[in-house]
Amino acid sequence: MLSERLTGLVGDSRSERTRRAYAADWRRWEAWCAQQGTSSLPAAPIQVAEYVAQYGTTVEHGRSKPHAAATLQRWVAAIDAVHRAHRLPPPGADEVVRNALAGARRRQAPARQTAMPGQAQPLSLPDLRLMLTATASTTWPRGVIATRDTALLLAGFVGGRRRSELVDARIADFSWHAHDGFHWVIPVSKTDQEGHGHTVVLPRGQHTLTCTACALTRWIQLRATLAAAAAAPPGHDDTFMAQSTGSAQTLVDT
Known about the structure:
mainly alpha, disordered C terminus
């Protein structure tokens, strides 16, 4: 039996969103097992494979197509997580379950290659140039905001980062390296829940308009100038708008 403190630590090993998803997935698994008259814990790998096969090949009531392979994978991960919490062998490690998931992925691959109606398309470089041109301004306070937004847009585009990571970006997370441009240290991301940190390299560009290093330098220098003049830029966020500190401040001073 796990102690309350240990249970808390084990629970904190996953994000709140993951815990909620796993709890819902486990309830779904328990309901299916009750209908089948089988045990949910411990679960037989062949039953988990049948579970995957049912929802990966047939259309559930109220849906227009079978569940995605990624969803099935998460369901199995939730079942495995509960088994591990009870110190039981995870059924998802069995070959029959792995093969069922692989079959679902292979069967759904052709459908994934066809874009769904209304699906957002990746931002192209010509579109990015249009956005940057439309954002540009030399008036107060629009010019200050445009300088910041340009740096964020280019950092996100070149670094291939998520919106949440851009929102949480801090000037202190960026440092200059003469040989390859800026290094952006992301403390925690969706794929790094344990907080080991991830470094993204943002190199110089060939054109001033789309040069991430140029945009970041302009914003950091402008931010330092405004801070020194005690005229903080307008805005509500305290992340990328924060005063330059740490390694980013030394970049301004050099």
